[in-house]
Design brief:
Layout lengths: L22 H11 L12 E4 L2 E13 L8 E5 L2 E5 L3 E9 L5 E2 L1 H8 L12 H14 L3 H8 L23 E6 L2 H10 L5 H17 L3 E7 L1 H6 L11 E6 L6 H17 L7 H4 L1 H10 L6 E5 L14 E5 L4 E6 L6 H20 L13 H8 L15 H11 L4 E5 L2 E4 H17 L7 E5 L4 H12 L3 E4 L6 H10 L4 E4 L13 E4 L4 H4 L16 E6 L9 E5 H12 L9 E4 L7 H10 L4 E4 L2 H8 L13 E3 L14 H12 L4 E4 L14 H11 L4 E4 L2 E2 L5 H15 L3 E2 L2 E2 L17 H17 L3
Parallel strand pairs: 8-10, 10-11, 13-22, 15-16, 15-17, 17-18, 21-22, 23-24, 24-25, 25-27, 26-28
Antiparallel strand pairs: 1-2, 2-5, 3-4, 4-5, 5-6, 7-12, 8-9, 11-12, 13-14, 19-20
Helix pairs in contact: 5-11, 6-8, 14-15, 22-23, 23-24
Amino acid sequence: MGSYFGMWQRPEAAGIISWSNEAARISALVRALDLGPYPKALGRPKIMIGNGFMLCTELEVLGTSLGSPPGTITAIEPGRIRIASRDNEIGIGQLMTLFGKPITVKELVERYGLRVGTKLPEASCASVERITNLNNEICKYESFWRKRLSSLQPVSLPYLETADIGPQATDSDELDFSIPAELFGCLRRLWPDRKGADIVVSAFSLYLARLGGEGRFDLGLRWPGLVEACDGVGELFATAVPWRIDVDCNTPTRSCMHRVLEELQAAREKKTYLLDVWSRYPELRTLAERSGIPPLSVQVELVESLISHRLEPGHDLGFVADEDGHCHFVFHSCRLRGDNAQLMVGQFRTLLQALSREPEKCVAELPLLTDAEEKQILFSWNETGSPFPEDKCKPQLFEEQVARTPDAIAVAFKEEEITYAELNARTNRLARHLRQRGVGPDAVVGIYVERSVEMVVGLLGIQKAGGAYLPLDPTYPKERLAFILEDAKVRVLVTQERLLASLPQHQATVIRIDAEWPEIAKEDSANFDSGARPHHLAYVIYTSGSTGKPKGVMLEHRNVVSFFTGMDGRIPHQPGNVWLAVTSLSFDISVLELFWTLCRGFKVVICPDEHRMAASAPRSSHSSKPIDYSLFYFSADQGENPSEKYRLLIEGAKFGDENGFTAIWTPERHFHAFGGLYPNPSVTGAALAMITKHLQIRSGSVVAPLHSAIRIAEEWSVVDNLSGGRVGLSFASGWMPDDFVIRPDDFAGRKDATFRILETVRRLWRGDA
């Protein structure tokens, strides 16, 4: 005679097999709970092995057990274990962990040391009663935990290291601290109807939200009632449950605390869940198979009094709080360093103090830094001063390097190379020529040249004359160049003959560094003092103008020399090193590439403009293809006025049709409240076909398992005819159980069904049927 299980009634002992039963009864239990790919709401049959449980997915009733006691292993065969029941032997070949991971007979034998004659344990009568009662009590909340587990989000803890602690790690460090009595009393007065430990762990969750900048995450949660309920059956039920923190950090802390405390109470009321829930529901099983069960890196525990706690596997930090404001950190030192744990304690206290004083302040505005941290960030970390040649300008540093390595190659461009001595001589001649044109300290000189040796000569020559160079990239638009020339009041401009025609209108005196070189070469090549000092300008560079018009930034020689000293400690270098200079002069990094290197004895290789442009150019053969623009309606608020719920869709379609958009996509949605906007894309597609002339009508997407192939083909052929052949279909298998509210039984096999229906629709559309 069959058994009936009501909605909130579950099989005895949560489906644990008792070998004292007849083989037929055991087989009936396994078959009754096996619903194939569909959700297994009642549970799954389980076998006790050692101190744990395994899921039994398939068994076979064999011959009589020949007098062996029930539960005795009578034979271990390849791929099967034979176990004695009350009357017959049972063969078991397929087993899984409670989380749905298959385990072979060989693995099972090795893990538990099984052999012929081993007697598998039986649950005692008291255990059976406890498990049955607890399971019947919590099963009504299983849908809650099912949804919660399918969307687990561990908290981001910025202080965690990347070391892997391994699942069996047991060593952990501990840190005890207490909330000052006056502060704890103030917190209790803010929430007088709540327990002290509840207030502390809720405030800790807001600290984590503030620290990581996240408003939604899950923490592991334990409390005395859960520990007591799971005592002795912790291998079967969850001994820690996910506590969902979902707050807006830009809202008052008091309201966030209320929300968190309410969620804490709700989690406690629902107590726990069977661990085999991970293997019983398709969406959880898929999640576990694809990426594993997401570990909750932080676990909180409420206790009546503090005792030593071992950190549960899978957690990086445990936070324990009692009713008197005493707290306890438990952590793996390879994942969280002790000094960072101490830092977190100080930050938590700072947040608690601010919370107690200003509970209406937003969580995002609560301070975290202790006085020591604030001093470290604002002062200690900024004490970066180091000695540098404060009395020198950049040209002097270059001249010192020339004296050290006069015959070394300084600059190379294509086939041309120039030594340090030759470069110094050329720049000195240009500097004297510029002096005769009025260039001196703080004079801004534009340089508009292609990348070449002449470019480097021009830059150094301007600075040796005492001036500050202003880069004008020949690849930039004329409008930008004209603005910069006018804004910087450039009076002298160094360029090349071939670039004259591309210059915008200007009032500057032009020096053609190539065409005028025979005249420039007559100048003296010796070093001289230009009068420039460390406080004078070295160069002026303009911003991109992304926030408005480009803005000029002026850098002095002392800034540059200090920067060079800083780079000395960051980049290993020695004379003779080679540096490929690829950056436009319009970017600060070019100062490092060209001048720090030349002041340190490098050979600087100038990358030609054409090579730079080729390296950054798009490589796709479709780069000239124009971008298509489409409208995609995923889901939307219906608005307050029911009569205008489709206004956005209709007006958007009209706009797209009149302005060259390619397509409009409408979805299929069933997980919203009844009467939602998009129950079927063929309906919205038909409406759009009647008000547009050019837009392609797209389904985004048809949830295939919810329809018959014939209906899909018939409905969309109507839309195709109404639109004049503008239809295009995309298909989906559906991605959440609530989408299958109209056909819940089709969720489990949705993927296979999608491909079958898709192929049938294709045949119907071609006219093959």
